[in-house]
Write a structure and sequence with these properties.
This protein is of the alpha/beta class. Helices cover 45% and strands 16% of the residues. The protein has one domain (3-225, 256-264): Rossmann fold, CATH 3.40.50. Helix 2 links the parallel strand 2 and strand 3 (44-49). Helix 5 packs across helix 6 and helix 5 (95-111) packs across helix 10. It is globular.
């Protein structure tokens, strides 16, 4: 039988009321990282992009199918942008578009009395993942200030594995729930190769444990020290090789978006 272990005392009472929870992810497929969490708590789900990548083929339908099987609530924000659109927004610093999205999510939070939010962690691996985390933190801050209440803000890793010691909430899967999770992942054609590669690299054991961590410092905008994030270094290499025209930079592109949202993400 699977079990849930909240290691933070302040988490325990809220976890008992997770009917008012939300899951915000940057791309379709991220829900597989917390598949059992979704099965257990049936959060209201928001997906920022359609996962179409450079090929232009949306994979949102796979995620919607998984969420419905898990009994999760589907929000109006599902595949709000294509991947090409979100990259354009970041490169062009399209403040108004992101502000509009943030306000829509905030309004939906208020209408559905969302008290607990889980979502992508800040890792410096992908700019859209990090932008998702910035939006989560800012939306929560605005809602807390407006309502005068505290929310539980949880994150989970996408590029790495979180240890149980670092987690605030640990969900251990039994054989049945793991088999459902694996079946859902294997049925996700676009991610099947990634799944097999991950299992070959880490084994299946880490995928039988889902770790979520309480966000202690939502005001921290970077997790990579004094250097540049991986996504920026990768983009620079692509520019140098002629694949990309321009590299997304944390200082030039992400940071101005963060500052704009932090001062404008308010219903007034």
């Amino acid at each position: 039988m699977d079990n849930v272990l909240p290691f933070w005392p302040s988490v325990t009472p809220i976890m008992q009321q997770l009917k008012n929870s939300a899951l915000i992810i940057a791309h379709p497929g991220h829900e597989l990282r917390v598949f059992r969490f979704v099965e257990l708590y049936k959060p209201r789900v928001y997906v920022l992009t359609d996962g179409s990548g450079s090929a232009g083929s949306s994979r949102l339908h796979n995620t919607i199918g998984i969420l419905k099987e898990c009994g999760a609530s589907i929000s109006p924000i599902m595949g709000y942008y294509t991947d090409k659109e979100i990259y354009r927004i970041i490169l062009e610093k399209d403040y108004s578009s992101l502000t509009t999205l943030g306000l829509k999510i905030l309004s939906d939070f208020q209408e559905n009395n969302i008290q607990v939010v889980a979502g992508d962690a800040l890792e410096g691996f992908n700019p859209t993942h990090d932008l998702c985390r910035y939006l989560i933190n800012l939306i929560i801050a605005v809602k807390e200030a407006k309502d005068g209440t505290r929310m539980l803000n949880l994150e989970f890793l996408l590029d790495g594995l979180m240890s149980e010691e670092d987690a605030s909430l640990v969900v251990r899967l039994d054989d049945d729930s793991f088999n459902r999770k694996r079946k859902a992942a294997e049925g996700y054609a676009e991610l099947a190769y990634e799944l097999q590669s991950a299992i070959q690299k880490y084994g299946s054991t880490p995928f039988m444990v889902e770790c979520l961590r309480k966000v202690i410092r939502p005001d921290i905008f970077s997790s990579w020290g004094d250097g540049i994030p991986f996504y920026e270094q990768y983009a620079i290499e692509k520019v140098n090789s002629g694949v990309y025209k321009k590299a997304i930079s944390f200082q030039e592109h992400l940071l101005p978006l963060i500052y704009h949202l932090s001062t404008n993400l308010s219903p007034g």
